[in-house]
């Protein structure tokens, strides 16, 4: 297939591009490099630019008849979204609508959207299935939920088919170590622990030990980046076969606490990893675990790297290579 990957130079996008190109697809990446790295784009044509640029989008869609678009170009920091909602609504919502309008103009019908567990806010129950109410508690979560609504309406009005994939905690790296996770600033637990193991940080922080969980730290559902990307690939193939629009929650269905993740990282790296206690981070639910039954049954999706140690091992392989250890 011919696929446009928007935000293909970022963490999840670059792993997606690698998988699509390994599968033999023809891939074009559009990325403004506001947070991604051009050198992470392997096996695709790279175009430097943003989805707010209507003329550029028209040129790309006119040049190549894409079978589908995957959209990873959004801002993702919950705390920043509270401080700067305009930045989040403009990029994550307004610019996404600009991209969708270009697709409609050029008759490109298949769209895969990076959504998030943050659309569920403080969950009423776990594991969280697709029937759980959407009740975001920050502008980041709202921005993603709004696009899900836009997509629903664009399907009805313009026949644009989409799959919204609600990621829980994406983690890990390409098993061959070609690319990995690099955010700036880094805010995610596993890379921060690995940077500490690699000696790039003195210590890692534990945000709250007084949650209503067995060891008092937050529980999350970590999903290997390769498994996450595999779901995108299946979702696009499903749309290409003529399936209806859909939304899926993507996780392993296993929750691990911050303490359990720290233990796993210590075991995999064989490093002590100093940690210090810090206050709760605003807006962190105690427990976020996905019910991915629907993705398994409808898409035939089945995570291969469900083991947390495997996820950490692949991320550590990349971290060592990246740090020159
Ligand atoms: N944590 C720490 N110390 C750190 C960093 C994180 O204790 O230095 C804790 C957090 O409080 C949380 C857990 O580790 O309990 C995981 O935190 P991450 O920042 O790695 O991931 P989040 O669960 O906060 O974020 C993920 C996605 C977001 C998305 C969110 C949905 O990365 O994009 O889930 O709630 F918005």
CATH level-four homologous superfamily name of the largest domain = NAD(P)-binding Rossmann-like Domain
Low-confidence segments, ≥5 residues, pLDDT <50? none
CATH architecture of the largest domain: 3-Layer(aba) Sandwich
Q: What percent strand?
A: 15-25%
Largest sheet: 7 strands, parallel
CA distance, first residue to last residue: 38 Å
Describe this protein with a few key phrases.
single chain; 325 residues; alpha/beta; 2 domains; 3-stranded mixed β-sheet; 10 helices; 14 strands; globular; binds uridine-5'-diphosphate-4-deoxy-4-fluoro-alpha-D-galactose
Question: What does this molecule look like?
Answer:
By secondary structure, the protein is α/β, with parallel strands linked by helices. It folds into two domains: about 1-170 and about 225-250, Rossmann fold (3-Layer(aba) Sandwich), CATH 3.40.50.720; about 170-220 and about 255-325, UDP-galactose 4-epimerase, domain 1, CATH 3.90.25. It has ten helices and 14 strands. Helix 1 packs across helix 7, helix 6 crosses helix 10 and helix 8 packs across helix 10 (about 310-325). The radius of gyration is 19 Å and the shape is globular.
């Amino acid at each position: 297939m011919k696929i446009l990957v928007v935000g293909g130079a970022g963490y999840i996008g670059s792993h997606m591009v690698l998988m699509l190109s390994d599968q033999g697809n023809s891939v074009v990446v559009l990325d403004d490099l506001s947070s991604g790295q051009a050198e992470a784009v392997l096996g695709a044509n790279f175009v430097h630019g943003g989805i707010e640029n209507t003329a550029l989008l028209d040129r790309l869609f006119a040049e190549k008849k894409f079978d589908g678009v995957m959209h990873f170009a959004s801002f993702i920091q919950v705390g920043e979204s509270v401080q700067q909602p305009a930045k989040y609504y403009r990029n994550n919502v307004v610019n996404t609508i600009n991209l969708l309008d270009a697709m409609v103009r050029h008759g490109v019908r298949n769209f895969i959207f990076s959504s998030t567990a943050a659309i569920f806010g403080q969950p009423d129950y776990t594991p969280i299935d697709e029937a759980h109410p959407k009740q975001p508690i920050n502008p980041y979560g709202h921005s993603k939920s709004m696009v899900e609504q836009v997509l629903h309406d664009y399907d009805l009005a313009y026949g644009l088919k989409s799959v919204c994939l609600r990621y829980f905690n994406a983690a890990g790296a390409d098993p061959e170590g070609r690319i990995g996770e690099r955010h700036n600033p880094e805010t995610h637990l596993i890379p921060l622990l690995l940077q500490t193991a690699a000696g790039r940080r003195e210590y890692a922080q534990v945000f709250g030990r007084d949650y209503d969980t067995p060891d008092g730290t937050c529980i999350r559902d970590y999903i290997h980046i390769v498994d996450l990307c595999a779901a995108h690939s299946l979702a696009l193939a499903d749309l290409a076969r003529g399936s209806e629009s859909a939304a899926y929650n993507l996780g392993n269905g296993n929750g691990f606490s911050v303490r359990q993740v720290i233990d796993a990282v210590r075991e995999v790296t064989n490093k002590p990893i100093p940690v210090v206690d810090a206050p709760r981070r605003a807006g962190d639910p105690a427990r976020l675990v996905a019910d991915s039954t629907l993705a398994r049954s409808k898409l035939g999706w089945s995570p291969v790297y469900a083991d947390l140690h495997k996820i950490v091992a692949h991320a550590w392989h990349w971290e060592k290579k990246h740090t020159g250890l």
